[in-house]
Amino acid sequence: MSTLGRLVLLPVPLDPEQSPLEVLPPATRGHFERIDVFVVENAKAARRFLGPLVGGRPLQSLELVEWNANQRRLSPDEALAPLRRGVDVGLLSEAGC
């Protein structure tokens, strides 16, 4: 039996000018350094947010799956397919923190 990846819900601060390094606790920031696949609402905004959180990795090395109300070309099953391959996925919640 294969091991499934974990889906990790990750908060995004409501104020885009506020540094995530200032408002997210260390345990939460640690998830960003370990995850390579993120389901996001807006890829451009996600890259800006993720920059200081991914431990110096190039943003191009991350897989950003864009899934929002206007762009649902993927089913939820397709968007979360990496989980079946044992890959952890971060779901960026723009609901705020």
Summarize the structure.
It contains 4 helices and 4 strands, in the order E-H-H-E-H-E-H-E. By secondary structure, it is an alpha/beta fold. It is globular.
Largest sheet: 4 strands, parallel
Shape: globular
Number of helices, counting only DSSP H or I runs of 4 residues or more? 4
Instruction: Please indicate the percent range of residues in DSSP E strands (runs of 2 or more).
Output: 15-25%
Please state the structural category.
alpha/beta
Strand arrangement within the widest β-sheet reads 1-4-2-3
Please, could you describe this protein's structure?
This protein is 26% helix and 19% strand. The protein has helices spanning 20-23, 26-34, 43-50, 76-79; strands at residues 7-11, 37-40, 63-66, 89-93. The chain has a four-stranded parallel β-sheet, covered by helices on one side. Strand 2, helix 3 (43-50) and strand 3 form a beta-alpha-beta unit. The termini are far apart. The model has no long low-confidence stretch (mean pLDDT 87).
